[in-house]
Amino acid sequence: MLQEKIESTVLSFNAPAPAEALFHYAYGKDHWQNLADHKKDAALPFEERSKYFKLLWVDDDPKFNSFSGIEGMKYDGELLILASSKMDDPSYAYKYDTHIKKLKELAYAFADKLTGCDNYQILSWKITEVENLFDNNLDGIKVRFTINK
Fold first, then answer.
1. CATH no. for residue 135?
2. What's the pTM?
3. What range does the domain containing 30 cover?
4. Domain count of the chain?
5. With bands split at pLDDT 50, 70 and 90, how would you rate the model's confidence at 24?
6. Which of 80, 78, 144 is nearest to 106 (CA)?
7. Helix (H) or strand (E) holding 101
């Protein structure tokens, strides 16, 4: 399933046996994501901050052959890629330059890694910038995707 593939791809960004993982994965609707605890590491440089990949939902759309056997799958879903921020960041331009832009770059590296094997093909990868999400003030991007397998 795509959920497991996304989780293993996210966790592969962590160094082998890290003292503390910087890349975290969670699956569930946004009201469940708001209940999660997140590190308060907004004062650290971006490279040292935790990055949160939150898969909100995935729709499975199987492709059947003439004998009603599944011969492929199309997945539509939504993924948040976030890092801690502060409510008192000086401006949106500051948020963009210090972490949103870097999370966009991470999203493209993630897409490359996700489709590197296992016959996954991205058909759509629409990125929207987001800020001050959840109770923990997380900034980043929302990715709406369509992926074939």
1. 3.30.70
2. 0.91
3. 2-11+20-148
4. 1
5. very high
6. 80
7. helix 101-114
